[in-house]
Design goal:
With about 220 residues, the protein is an alpha+beta fold. It is built from 7 helices and 12 strands. It folds into 2 domains: about 1-30; about 35-215, Immunoglobulin-like, CATH 2.60.40.3340. It is about 40% helix and about 30% strand. α3 crosses α4 (about 85-95). The relative contact order is 0.18.
Length: about 220
Amino acid sequence: MKNLKANKVEVVAVLNSSILIITILVLCLSCNSKKFDNETALLNYIKDDVNGYTQHKTINGVDYTLTYRPTDMLVKQEIGGNNQDVEGKAKSLREKYSNYLYFNLSMSMNNKELLSVSPKNRNEFGQMVNQLAFGMNEKVHLYTQSKDTIELADFIYPRMYGMSRATTIMFVYPRAKALEEEYINFTIEDLGMYTGEVKFKIRTEAIENEPQLSF
């Protein structure tokens, strides 16, 4: 009987220890995702290279900036200034957007968008417009550490007509298979500017713990 009681005490102690460890792990994981009270603070955090959401490269005079857009940035954009049932709308929109990854790719030369400096004549200008608007699915790729390609879901190129300092395109990829390994690779083929392939290595841990907004 004494042995049975002793064994029960040991089992209870082990269970309590396990529960405590699990609780601590859950708390630690929840702490990894930062929360911000406003969009400006979140954007400043995203833009800081140290946090792993923005990367820069300059090759042959072409400046590339790749920025990961957290789900809540798209949620906030759709909610806008509407203050009615914000929590309910945020929950619904998070479900809508969280199945995908969103990347903004900005490219510039001399602080100008590519169409303002790269094409040498009207024919080249037309070709680049067509490529940026309709052909970037053939030029930009996302693949896993194991070289598995993540198929592009969509891309959006807003024409700025020389009013911007960079050509910026948003690329959308399904989230499910992209985060199974330690990192993913985002690559841009040469767009006729003699840069060769440009490659960005993105740690999936940063995406899994992406910052959020408090709605």
